[in-house]
Specification:
Number of helices: 5
Structural class: mainly alpha
Strand content: under 5%
Number of strands: 0
Low-confidence stretches: none
Order of helices and strands: HHHHH
Largest sheet: none
Distance between the termini: 14 Å
Shape: elongated
């Protein structure tokens, strides 16, 4: 489980920083990039994360759970309802849950 968790956290860092880039970071906010729908940017960013979770865990349903969770957490952050530290803590908590579920599913 620890190895899976470390991989999930590493994939999160890659997806949240180099794979997101400035464009998606700006575009997923309301009025972030003129003429570009914020919903599409947020969904695209969440899909990148979902793909990373699915690759690490081998589970499409954990990828789907990540898509929903990541989108919801970033939605709150982009609307200034939570701060960056709460955002990152919530993402890390999700990775712990995914690692437990992936390990439990493998051995069950």
């Amino acid at each position: 489980m620890i190895v899976t968790l470390l991989y999930l956290l590493a994939v999160h860092a890659v997806c949240d920083y180099p794979l997101q880039g400035q464009f998606l970071s700006d575009a997923k906010r309301p009025n972030g990039v003129r003429g570009f729908p914020w919903q599409l940017a947020l969904a695209s960013h969440s899909l990148i994360h979902a793909g990373g979770v699915a690759l690490v865990t081998g589970s499409w349903w954990l990828g789907a759970a990540e898509f929903v969770a990541h989108g919801a957490i970033d939605y709150l952050k982009c609307r200034n309802r939570i701060g960056i530290w709460t955002d990152q803590a919530a993402h890390a908590a999700c990775k712990v849950v995914w690692a437990v579920l992936a390990t439990w599913s493998f051995y069950a």
